[in-house]
Amino acid sequence: MPPIPKNASNILIRSTNWIGDAIMTTPAVRSIHRNFPEAKITLLALPWVADVFSACPHIDHIFIYDKQGRHQGLRGKLRLAADLRQENYDLTILLQNAFEAALITFLARIPARGGYTTDGRGLLLTHGVRKHPAIKTKHQVHYYQEMLEGLGLQRSENSLELFLDPAVERDADALIKEALALQGEKADDIPIIGLNPGAAYGPAKCWPVAKYAELAGHLSNKTGGLIVIFGTAADQEAAAEICSATGERVLDLTGKTTLAQALACIARCSVFVTNDSGLMHVAAALNTPLVAVFGSTDHIATGPYSQQATVVRRPVECSPCMKTHCPKGHFQCMEGITVEEVEQAALLWLNKRE
């Protein structure tokens, strides 16, 4: 394989498709920028991932992959390739592993194309990197960084990072201050306790909502804190159950914020209790103290990459199964985790705040 062109001046990075995965690529994005400090770097990303990088100083431009509109279907993919061809990129680095990512950049005639040779796409890459089996035993942060090393690039430190727009941060401050003012409180007086009861990859990743509701009631009563519930519109039913157990000291943000606003609000939390989800990785990148509840997924490969995190799990023989639904029907990996365990983990972080 020829060396990757070190004089590349117009680089396209293909982002991953999920928020959590995108957060775990942030060290790799930083590495690319440091290897090509003078280059213009564009990120090709789906709309719901774009806010992760909207304030990132390592990215000069975000090119939206409009999969539901202009770039929908086969004709849309061809249109995307034509759109990219007009930009005259001289190098693309594919953080996303799919065959489609390599095909589109091949059709876009980008002369140097680097990435893992997974999904049978080796022939579409000019700089293919073989995935070593041992990578499965490491956190996913290393997965992307080692791919860059395979391309002959220097990796930066592995720490996650997330940059916030100051205007959005001011909006988050105002939102929380307003909720506290309704309770006659000030932001400096009480803890902000974030809860994230949802997860995109099926119900097997979700600690039961009834347990979240009980936890919210306990933490609200013991700390006097404001409970802030995060999630999408799909989590509003769960949020309603949590609200009913908490009383007035609650702010339900499910389906009511942009991703950028949610990120800024998570940055203001004193502790964040969450399932394995994209927002869990957001909290890790923001160094927000967090408690992550794990069951069906691998806490080694995709756990919170942070020194400010506690993972709570109940080891059972079939976990992690990596399934969207419990294949055995008993859901013991999650049902076995008690409210008391999670509560104590959250209180430990809140006590360190004092």
Automatic annotation (TrEMBL):
Gene3D superfamilies: Glycogen Phosphorylase B. It catalyses: an L-alpha-D-Hep-(1->5)-[alpha-Kdo-(2->4)]-alpha-Kdo-(2->6)-lipid A + ADP-L-glycero-beta-D-manno-heptose = an L-alpha-D-Hep-(1->3)-L-alpha-D-Hep-(1->5)-[alpha-Kdo-(2->4)]-alpha-Kdo-(2->6)-lipid A + ADP + H(+). Its EC number is 2.4.99.24. Keywords: Glycosyltransferase, Transferase. GO terms for cellular component: cytosol. Pfam families: Glyco_transf_9. GO terms for biological process: lipopolysaccharide core region biosynthetic process. GO terms for molecular function: ADP-heptose-lipopolysaccharide heptosyltransferase activity. PANTHER family: ADP-HEPTOSE--LPS HEPTOSYLTRANSFERASE 2, TETRAACYLDISACCHARIDE 4'-KINASE-RELATED. Belongs to the glycosyltransferase 9 family. This is lipopolysaccharide heptosyltransferase II. It comes from Candidatus Electrothrix aarhusensis.
